[in-house]
Design goal:
Radius of gyration: 17 Å
Number of helices: 5
Helix content: 10-25%
Number of domains: 1
CATH architecture: 4-Layer Sandwich
Strand content: 25-35%
CATH class: Alpha Beta
Bound molecules: fe (ii) ion
Length: about 260
């Protein structure tokens, strides 16, 4: 199974990259399933129902989230409930939305996706991602051998430890949240693909998505200005995974980094 996973799609810049380029990427790389982290797409925080529909139109099958997901909870409380849009599974006491899903391809094959948040440097009330991941992966394995974990976390140590803890139990552990793509993609000894951070699909010429000048002003002058999403330097960050059909083990992980120019 060939899977494309896109790092945090940020603001209108990220949305426009998907609108203008995702269909050609899916076809060029013979992608069968597309997963995108979209915790920052609605003006930097969360995702709306309207944007979710557009994502599906562009070719995204499953949407994952992170620490900003619950800033726009409407998408999780729609009637009928929206399928395959996730927020972190280990948000304690959160009843809205789902943290894992099993997606069925048109030919009947299945892929499970799990979304988790790390605990290092996060204030949210979170259950242990290690314990939660192990239990849900075990449960999902009854239905499918293809399991992808989006681990939305700050610390690379926590990410590399979760990946090794789950090695051989899931197809991939992919880090998100920092908006900076790391160059440490690899397949762990028991067949789990790993990267510390997939990166961001949004404006690279920014402070991880926000307008540089405002963020520099905050650092230099402790100015309390409201940050606004940037749009300069459209960049797509993702990974393409190749997963063995019978075992669910990863056979390849390839990074994507692409800069674009918008036509006016
Ligand atoms: Fe993010
Ligand atoms: Fe985040």
């Amino acid at each position: 199974m060939r899977i494309l996973f896109l790092g945090d799609v940020f603001g209108s810049c990220g949305k426009r990259i998907l609108a203008e380029h995702l269909p050609e990427i899916l076809s060029e790389h013979a992608i069968e399933v597309c997963i995108a982290n979209a915790e920052n797409v609605a003006g930097g925080k969360g995702i709306t129902l309207n944007i979710l529909k557009k994502f599906h139109k562009y070719g995204v099958d499953i949407v994952t989230g992170g620490n900003h997901s619950m800033s726009r909870p409407e998408v999780f409380t729609e009637t009928p409930p929206q399928k395959h849009v996730l927020r972190p599974l280990n948000l304690r006491h959160e009843e809205r939305g789902e943290g894992s899903t099993v997606f069925t391809l048109s030919d009947g094959r299945k892929i499970g996706v799990i979304n988790l948040c790390g605990r290092t440097y996060f204030n949210e009330d979170l259950e242990c991602p290690f314990t939660v991941a192990k239990a849900i992966a075990q449960h999902m394995a009854v239905e499918t051998a293809h399991i992808i974990v989006d681990f939305h976390a700050e610390a690379t140590s926590e990410k590399v430890c979760l990946a090794n803890y789950l090695d051989g139990r899931v197809s991939a552990v992919l880090g998100t949240h920092t908006h900076v793509q790391t160059a440490d993609e690899r397949i762990l000894p028991k067949g789990t693909a790993y990267i510390s951070d997939v990166g961001m699909t949004g404006p690279e010429d920014s402070a991880i998505g926000m307008k540089l000048k405002q963020v520099i002003d905050r650092f230099v002058n402790q100015a309390h200005v409201r940050f606004q999403p940037a749009s300069a330097g459209p960049m797509l960050n993702g990974v393409i995974l190749e997963i063995d059909e019978s075992t669910g083990k990863a056979t390849a992980i390839q990074r994507l980094y692409q800069r674009y120019r918008f036509k006016s």
